[in-house]
């Protein structure tokens, strides 16, 4: 079957009317661009210039030239956020996804396609195996994933890197080789070189990707059980999550998944807690003890396991009244110049004599959103002092927890 037909038969493309394509200029993304153009998909391409290599601007211009020849609109996005500190690759990756998601929404696109291949699946499997990853880490990349409020597609996961480059050669099309692909300072490059020897043992890319695919099936089964458990056991109480007591008797992996996603939502975090800290917290909970995890408190109460924001984690968080507070709270009410949204805290709670009537625990209310004008408390919607204001906890752009409750 021709590559373009295999491409069209891939997962997720049939229901996409307007597709964004991430094109770095490398062989995989250039093959994706040409296949989409040949398939007649209404697409718009984007290249992110991280400003980290002097060649990057010229490479983006070359991608724009190829796109013009194919009749595909192209945009270049530039990131200038690197300050020389922290993990460069991680920051660049996060910035890249954020920039492309904003670009896709502004362009009215349904999804963005990425050029990950079967080789990427195999390499990622080995990298995560070396780190002792669990099922989720070892499972194959998802062909469809929602992140940063955008749908991301990987339509080339069934294709090998070799087949895609052969297709480009057949077309007489070129691509750009990133010199970092030969830099042994990067884990992926060392893994790639090591895989040459593994192939002789029957552990080539195809076999490793197949195993990762089996684990993806296991992940899907665990996710299904987690959704069923969430539907039975989870309730929301004004931004807090309550798990029924039965949750602590669930199989360890299902409980871990529920806790991770619940804590991620309550903490309005991009990622959930790491495995070791989550395992330690789970063990303490099953012993009947409360824990602090990922900026949240998890406490066993009469109604079940309540998960709420820790006041110390948000005591310094400040936002304008028309912006999200702590990543997920939206407040609406009578605007007055100079007002801010901050945590209620102990001093604010003293100005809410009717807070007990709310039915919320004191510890939850301390971390709840409140409207302040200087040092004067204007409103605390969750603590019985609304003064015309409301507060609503919204879904995270990167969180899946609320989607568990919709099944």
Coarse shape: globular
User: If helices are DSSP runs of H or I spanning 4 or more residues, what is the number of helices?
Assistant: 15
Query: Span between N and C termini?
Result: 38 Å
Structural class: alpha+beta
Q: What is the assigned CATH homologous superfamily of the largest domain? A: HUPs
The main pleated sheet reads as: 6 strands, mixed
Sheet with most strands: strand arrangement = 3-2-1-4-6-5
Helix content: 40-55%
Rg value: 24 Å
Description:
The protein has 407 residues and is of the alpha+beta class. The chain contains 15 helices and 17 strands. The longest helix has 29 residues, at 205-233. 42% of the residues lie in helices and 18% in strands. The two termini are 38 Å apart. The strands form four sheets. It has a six-stranded mixed beta sheet, with helices on both faces. A five-stranded antiparallel beta sheet has the order 7-8-11-10-9. A hairpin with a 2-residue loop joins strand 5 (144-147) and strand 6. The chain folds into three domains: 3-210, Rossmann fold (3-Layer(aba) Sandwich), CATH 3.40.50.620; 233-310 and 398-405, no CATH class; 312-393, no CATH class. The chain is globular. Helix 2 (27-39) packs across helix 7 (161-171), helix 5 packs across helix 8 (187-198) and helix 5 (118-130) crosses helix 9. This is tRNA(Ile)-lysidine synthase. It is found in: Cytoplasm. Keywords: ATP-binding, Cytoplasm, Ligase, Nucleotide-binding, tRNA processing.
